[in-house]
TrEMBL record:
CDD domains per record: GGDEF, PAS
Annotated GGDEF domain residues: 403-537
Entry protein name: Diguanylate cyclase (GGDEF)-like protein/PAS domain S-box-containing protein
Organism: Actinoplanes campanulatus
Pfam families the record matches: GGDEF (PF00990), PAS_3 (PF08447), PAS_4 (PF08448)
Domain PAS: 145-178, 248-318
Residues annotated as signal peptide: none
Amino acid sequence: MADIQLKPDDRDAVFKALLAQHPDAFIGAIGANGLFLPLPREATDTGLRPIESASSMLGLAVIDDHRLVIDAWSEAVTAGVANCLVHLIAAPDRLARMHFVDMTHRFGVYIGIISGSGLAAELTLQPELVRPRLVTMHKSPVSVVTEVGPEITDLLGWAPAELVGQRTLELVHPDDQQRAIASWMDMLSTPHGSARRVRLRHLHRDGRTVWFEVTNHNYLADPDHPRVVAEMLDISDEMVAQEAVRAAEQLMRRLTETIPLAILQTAHDGRITFLNERAAQQVKAQVGDVLTDALLELAEPVDRRRVGDALAGVLTGEDTDLEYGHRKPGAGIRRIRANLRALTDDSGTVTGAIVCLADVTEEALLRERLWRQATFDALTGCHNRAATVAALDDALDTADEHAGTAVVFLDLNAFKPINDRYGHAAGDLLLSHVAASLRSAVPSGAIVGRIGGDEFVAVCRDVAGREHADRIGADLLTALSAARVQIGGHTLVPHASLGVAWSPYGTGDSDELLAQADAAMYAVKRTRGDSPALSHTG
């Protein structure tokens, strides 16, 4: 990034050169926060096509190029001019160039110009549309909608006024209605302010199914305004990813059962009596060789004992399926799925075995990729909500006895002004830094999950008591206060409110423990106020 700010005359010259070189380009006025402003008259008179229906230059580029746009904008703020090559959402198959010029000395704004040979006269710059994922709904004691946020239209297709007065059960998929009723009745029995969470399929107005994680907060004891406040989070993408994992695993099982790539038969002494051509190529063996010797020679050292035990076991009647590393000459390490089945005579005596070997390297990589998509938040790399709750359930229910489980709930203070001032890309960058700081500070074996927009939860095992849990929370706040994020020439320092809950081994419920930590966090927020989410240094 350049350190020298161009003089106004030099910036004027760059601006004039861009107008002369790109008469068919698009032009927009940008404020200090990176968002578009109305074009000054002088800029309108240039004859360039005005950028419309977009909030920022960032929203016009494909997601993979967002970092390029952010870096160019930061350089323009510092040096006065900058540019970058990007793919536009409106024309993703061609490169366009984004120019930024500081014209605050003349027009009071920065100027953004988009040029490129692929910007046809009829092209309209379409910004990326961000669909909301969360809506808040208020319900009566009998689950009738009394109020719902405008986001419901994007999520389920209904206007808020159309749902007021309707029973929420009518929105739930018929197969999930019994679970919805059970969760509602459970929530009714909880103390004032408690919450219950349930995952339900809902019916979109057009007939589609949309998955929501619904958190019902019980405020029915409020004498002035008895109600249930439901936070409905769209988890459809997460559920699709989990279903893809299940489908991929089922597909792999069926493939290895029905489409063997290599087949070998052995006698009761383990010597090969038959192998097809693929098997001969894969294990470099022939009839009469000992199968154990042939497989172990190419198996990865770490897997040799398991392979040997499986081969010995099948010759005593123990069928086995396993996956192991196989060194294939010229192709590196492959993952092999081996299905071993014993052969017996009419009396049940083992006479040999059939071994089916399938190369599942690509399937293993796909399984790993899908597992990561279903487990981790794409932006921060933290566990997603479902994986965080699963980790907490495991910590509470594991057979490996430990001291206890701590839950630390963090909520960034006043995070919205960051997006408003610096743009969502800056907010995303801050969230990523916060996540990295938290992961570096939790104890070994703990996980950090992102369960909401700016909400994080740490799940820690083997925590000796509440005092130990509080120390972990203090360590996380210390790590967070040490985080530094460079945005727009400023160093930003995040702040958060934090709540801690602890349960000894063998006790506690995941929903209850999360609710306790959540309540403790909000108690801190109410006591200390929603302090700024960031401070400026430098």
